[in-house]
Write a structure and sequence with these properties.
Layout lengths: L13 E3 L3 H8 L2 H12 L4 E4 L3 H6 L7 E2 L6 H6 L3 E2 L4 E4 L6 E4 L5 H14 L2
Parallel strand pairs: 1-2, 2-6, 3-4
Antiparallel strand pairs: 5-6
Length: 123
């Protein structure tokens, strides 16, 4: 299904992939940016690992959020108004939507556990 035809009601959670190529393609896609804005406005959780937060920067939804990422995104996130932590997982529930982030593939067990914990805690 093309991103342009999706609706926030279609999602329980969005997982943004890492890697520079995947994340770079998503961040320049108008439909992906609009989807990120729509999901955050609807309070749908987003989980992002590695370079995944690039999309959130370009969608202008990280201001006031606390997150982690691949270390090279630190300055980009700070410049976009986010707070950055060097931790395996950061879970931010501020501003009406949940953001779960991790740094690298080495953090995958913690990242998956945080997503699972969040989703199983939902009513």
């Amino acid at each position: 299904m093309p991103l342009s035809t999706t609706h926030p009601d279609d999602y329980d959670l969005l997982v943004l992939p890492g890697g520079t190529v995947n994340a770079d393609k998503l961040r320049i896609d108008d439909s992906a940016r609009q989807l990120a804005r729509s999901l955050t406005a609807a309070g749908i959780p987003i989980a992002a690992i590695c370079h995944g937060p690039w999309l959130l920067i370009d969608a202008a939804v990280v201001t006031g959020k606390t997150l982690t990422s691949y270390p090279s995104l630190r300055t980009d996130l700070l410049n976009a108004g986010a707070s950055w932590l060097d931790a395996p997982v950061v879970h931010d529930d501020q501003q009406g939507w949940t953001l779960i982030t991790s740094r690298t593939p080495a953090d995958l067990p913690d990242f998956i556990a945080a997503i699972t914990d969040h989703m199983t805690a939902q009513p």
